[in-house]
Amino acid sequence: MDIKVHYPGLCHSDLSMLNNEWGMTQYPFVPGHEVVGEVVATGSGVKHLKTGDLVGLGWTSASCMHCDQCMGGSHHLCGTAEGTIVGRHGGFADYVRSHWSWAVPLPAGIDLEKAGPLFCGGITVFNPIIVAGVKPTDKVGVIGISGLGHMALKFLNKWGCEVVAFTSSPDKNDQILAMGATRVVNSKDPKELASIQGSLDFILNTTNVTLDWNSYLATLAPKGRFHTVGAVLEPMAIPAFSLITGEKSVGGSPLGSPALTRTMLEFCVRHDIYPIVETFPMAEINQAFDHLTAGKARYRVVLKA
């Protein structure tokens, strides 16, 4: 189906693809994988959408619909899934094309201007809550309070958890508490890390840099889970005894299925959860890229087509 683009988001994945940091970019390259738009054309096999419907599209634009992962509802784990900006042009265009299964209908009442980043950053941090079976009674931690991390705080707060935010910028404490954190811990202060040792049931890492993994594993309670969604390019050196002695585990995940994305959107509307965004007109896309590259984005960038 074809989607007329209204509010595409811009994030670091677009920047990484633009610079071919992941080695899979094909030029000429058109970024844009957080798309909010309007259906303008459908194929004969589309049953649940019609022209004029408002939809969102994220990193994935198609999957095979017949493998075990697709048939089991984990379409995002399909071995032949197609990326919206991998081998094709993305949402920084007038129109973008996708398979009907990945064009997710937008629920009534959603803020269209802020919805785009939910289809990448939002589902990226919502999926681990489900994957790890996080409970409202859990005490959880979030590492890195930026584009992904600030949305994780909002989700986990409304999930009912006690939320500890790890940050290396203590001057942002008030902002972080306003986002939903219960407590802010300075990740560079050994005393503050020691004060929560053995207390967290779940930690979500949203950073893409190498960290002192053992220090964070030490803050996990027995049977605690450390989950990463940050694309750390260097090998993660995880000390075995840190896991073995407390039956702890380490995992990771990509985005999420179309069905879970629908659930996330309903959760967002119910609890008024949206990313903090800065909006640029599409004509100023180069300035928006410069703003993101300079690390000035607070906290997601949305373009207005």
Q: How are the SSEs placed, and which strands pair?
A:
Layout: E1 2-5, E2 9-10, H1 12-18, E3 35-41, E4 54-57, E5 60-62, H2 68-71, E6 82-83, E7 95-97, E8 104-105, H3 112-115, H4 121-131, E9 139-143, H5 149-159, E10 162-167, H6 173-179, E11 183-186, H7 190-194, E12 200-205, H8 213-217, E13 220-228, H9 240-244, E14 249-252, H10 258-271, E15 277-281, H11 285-293, E16 300-304
Parallel strand pairs: 9-10, 9-12, 10-11, 12-13, 13-14, 15-16
Antiparallel strand pairs: 1-3, 1-7, 2-16, 3-4, 4-8, 5-6
Helix pairs in contact: 4-5
Rounded mean pLDDT is: 95
Tally of alpha and pi helices: 11
Instruction: For the record, give the distance between the C-alpha atoms at the N and C termini, rounded to a whole number.
Output: 19 Å
Give the number of DSSP strands. 16
Gross morphology is globular
Label the structural class.
alpha/beta
The CATH superfamily name of the largest domain is: Medium-chain alcohol dehydrogenases, catalytic domain
Largest sheet: 6 strands, parallel
- Write the element-wise H/E pattern from the N-terminal end onward: EEHEEEHEEEHHEHEHEHEHEHEHEHE
Helix content: 25-40%
The main sheet orders its strands as 11-10-9-12-13-14
Q: Quote the CATH topology of the largest domain.
A: Quinone Oxidoreductase, Chain A, domain 1
Q: Which architecture of the largest domain does the CATH hierarchy give at level 2?
A: Alpha-Beta Complex
